[in-house]
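#lab-general

N.A. 3:47 PM
ok so I finally got the sequence cleaned up, no stray characters, all 802 residues accounted for. can someone with queue access submit it? mine expired

B.Y. 3:52 PM
send it over

N.A. 3:53 PM
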Amino acid sequence: MHVIDRSNYRVGICGLLATVLIACSSGEEGASPTEEQLRSCTTDDRGWSRAIARARADKTLPELQALAEEVAAACPARWQPLWTAGESLFRQAPKAPVEVFEEMRELWGGALERARAADDDAGVAISTFRIGVYHKRVSDLDTAEAVILTGLEAAERVDRPDLLANGYNALAGVYRTGGRLAETIEALEQSSVHLEHAGRSKDARRLDYNRSLVLEDVGQLSEQRRLLEQVYRDSLAAGDEQRLHRVCVAMGNHFLLHDELDTAREWYERVPDGSDQAPNAALGRGRAELRAGRPEEAIRQLERALVDDLSIRFKLYPRTFLGEALLRKGDLAGAREQLSGVIADADRIASREISGMARSLYGKALAEDPEQLGEAIRWLREALEFVEGTGEGLDPAAGGMTFLRERSEPFADLTAVLALRHGKEQAGEILAIVERAHARSLRQILGSEGRSIEAAELEEIQRSLEPDELMLDYLVGRDRGTLIAIGAHDVSVHVIPGWRTLRKPLRRYLSALKRPLISQEARSNPRADLERDLETGRHLRRQLLDPVGERLTSARRVYLVPDQDLALLPFAALPLDGPEQRFVGERIEMAVLPMAGSHRRPRGEVARILVAGDPVPDADGEFPELPLASEEISRVLAVWNDVSATALRRDELSVDRLGELQLSDYDLLHFATHAVASSRDPDQCAVILSEGRRLGLRRITELELGPALVVLSACQTGEGEVIPGEGVVGLTWAFLSAGARAVVASLWSVEDSATTELMVAFHRHLRNGEDGVRALMLAQRELSAERQHPVYWAPFVIVLSP
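B.Y. 4:20 PM
back already:
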């Protein structure tokens, strides 16, 4: 039997909605037995399973339950009818109150006794799986896990892959309820494998719905959407309205996480009022209204979600968001009262997910009162305890990168409240909390899994800085954020606005910066076009940089540790005050760090370089010729004419040819080719080689690089998945994890001729002995003298390895 390691079990938040994992049917394809056959004391549990499936489709489950209880009385040695009676009751009311589950427990327990007496391992397995579901329902997760594992051992003994599939699916439900996401994914994968072995591909596809829920939990939304779309088509074709409504809610939740609120509402509206999913749809609409800033309408929708026949556990979700809506409305007393009741009930039934969410919101509500900051800190610290264990054991190159989505808020609130109450007196602790939220996946890849930066390391960071250098570390929540400014001899902590204030001007200014690339009118006079949005840029600068004051003015170099969408902003393109209309990057050298800490300085000396690019176009025309790539390669090689150089062009630009090289021998790697970026799905990010072949994230992380400087002279190489607490995870992240000491990458599609001039100037300054940070700044300054608009010189940033 496959044993799932539970030695690293830690409690965490497992998702925003308590959508019950639906157990696979234990039946197989075939004709449903007649009533006469069922009354004959049959020992065929598959026949009873087919009877359940038919009764569910025909809406005759009460009649089947009565028949099963009658047969159980007439056939006291048979476990199958007792199990069927319990299963029929469960299928009628999967969200029933606890007392109804007690009745199911008695029926399943009776079936288990009969199965053991008959030495029937199939009956032991089937009955214990359902008893495990009962213990999960009453929040006894440890017992639920132990019972289901016992059932899996019995299923193994009878070599029944269909039973093993059911058992692993039930186990996944327990793990998901307990916030053990990595184990949930593994259990669902085992269930799918056993369904295929049982020849039940159709049921394996039904399991995709369960998998999609967990993918939402860990933030793998592109894969989730693919699965949900397939399940939606299957449900529509089968006329399965119940499953169709579940998928509609899940699709609404998917688009809600993407902030596509109108699309989310459209999916929720597909669920009719009479559906058993109507409360979940109302809950989704309430959350959408919260995100849209309409707390009154959110309250109305959330109250619709609080239907009377829901259990306490399922009412906790709308009650929690109702507390948030009251907070947004400004009813602090009402929010605290609502959330305190949620916390008490969640603790009583051991709902760890809701306990963490409600504590976070309760702390946020307390923080609105200056006299309650101490209490707010206490509650927010407790909320972090629930978040910290989430994602334990997830693959850091997949789910582990994204599981923090929606879960960084307590970190941001706690650091801001600590800053308000204590200021720089607790700068070390504030930094430690910020870094607990920052770059966890990158830290895991780099070999320091689970390690948080310690407060004492603040002094180490300060020792790594020159007197004219400054490190700015950001953590931004929905309502407020924190900026830690670290210098060689001092440190300060500042509370800054949250995303509710920053996101709209940030998106507007980014759009203005890129406008000449897509608008002929803007391209004809780019500087004049930008002038109308310069005040938006100045507003961002005042919020993000001006809190540091004179310390920024006197700095020669600034290391930025951005958070979330701030990683998409070229801080160098923020305008300064004054009639000259100068930009920050024309005066200050700027570099990016994925997390705070001492860093490897980008050295200037280069002994061996690799220049790769000018790819052969692909047959489909998706990646056409790059007319200036050959010129760029030749000019870069000319700059390094007395250095050992390798060039890969045209047909030689391939994965196989790269694999033949000892890449760790190179000090500098320059790619002049296409790239693909995705701010939704990091696995789609890739450097494009000849004939459209991709060097994707996983292949890049497997490259054995030395401490090289990697230059990605392509479009949007700095984009990727934007993750709360982590910033952008994309090509830059992949090259750093492969060992690069620094990566130069673009934040948006670049103009070819400007890029060539910038890159040649950058290499020239490197050749003259400048380090990567200063070389990029000098190259940008040169180009800005000819082309003032930042669209031409600002998109490239240098990211340093911690």
